[in-house]
Design goal:
Layout: H1 8-14, E1 18-19, E2 23-25, E3 30-32, E4 38-39, E5 43-45, E6 50-57, E7 61-63, E8 68-78, E9 83-84, E10 89-91, E11 93-95, E12 114-116, E13 119-121, E14 126-127, E15 132-133, E16 138-139, E17 144-145, E18 150-151, E19 159-162, E20 167-171, H2 175-187
Parallel strand pairs: 1-4, 2-5, 3-6, 4-6, 5-7, 6-8, 7-9, 8-10, 8-13, 9-14, 10-15, 13-16, 14-17, 15-18, 17-19
Antiparallel strand pairs: 11-12, 19-20
Keywords: Acyltransferase, Repeat, Transferase
Organism: Lachnobacterium bovis
GO molecular function: acyltransferase activity
């Protein structure tokens, strides 16, 4: 019986650098540059996601429907228990929109300028629906980014940030760390 996720044999054929146990990737997701991707255990990537470039996903990660991660050679890292809600986008590389250079992939490199910087989402980071993360951003452990937020600079740990550009709103509870311990004890992580 066919499922909407790739089988173990199909995952092997995609050519990931490495991947762990219980990896569920929708057959409707698009993967570019799989040989640069490292995927941990218990990872789920839903329909219509696009993953491109040097991406490192820890364990217990969910990437919801219609997300895009554009890492290029610069890289995007999502640490354990991090989550992207639907329609989120992460850019580790982008065109320079200043007007000093041409833009888009149909143009020769000599006319382009790239803005790039590794992006890292710490453990237990959740990024709510429709948020956008720009190059060079680090989001600290336990931080929540609100719906439709624009992340243009790095965010501290255990905060809730919202807006365009996003700003600190309040502290986030750390109770989930107790729940993580129970989960790891139960599932041997």
């Amino acid at each position: 019986m066919a499922t909407s996720f790739y089988s173990e044999d199909e995952l092997k054929k995609i050519g990931f650098k490495s991947y762990g146990k219980n990896v569920l990737i929708s057959r409707n997701a698009q993967i570019y540059g799989a040989s640069k991707m490292v995927i941990g255990n218990n990872v789920r990537i839903d329909d219509f996601c696009v993953l491109s470039g040097a991406i490192e996903l820890g364990s217990n990660i969910h990437i919801a429907v219609f997300c895009g991660i554009f890492a290029g050679n610069t890289g995007v890292k999502m640490c354990d228990f991090s989550t992207l809600s639907s329609r989120c986008v992460i850019y580790a590389e982008s065109d320079d929109y200043s007007g000093e250079h041409l833009t888009n992939p149909t143009i020769d490199e000599e006319y382009l300028e790239r803005v790039s910087g590794k992006v890292e989402l710490g453990r237990h980071v959740i990024v709510e629906t429709g948020a956008t993360i720009l190059p060079g951003v680090s989001i600290g452990e336990g931080t929540a980014v609100g719906s439709m937020s624009l992340v243009t600079k790095s965010l501290d740990e255990w905060g809730i940030y919202v807006g365009i550009p996003c700003k600190y709103k309040k502290e986030r509870s750390k109770k989930l760390l107790e729940l993580e311990k129970k989960y790891n004890k139960q599932y041997g992580e």
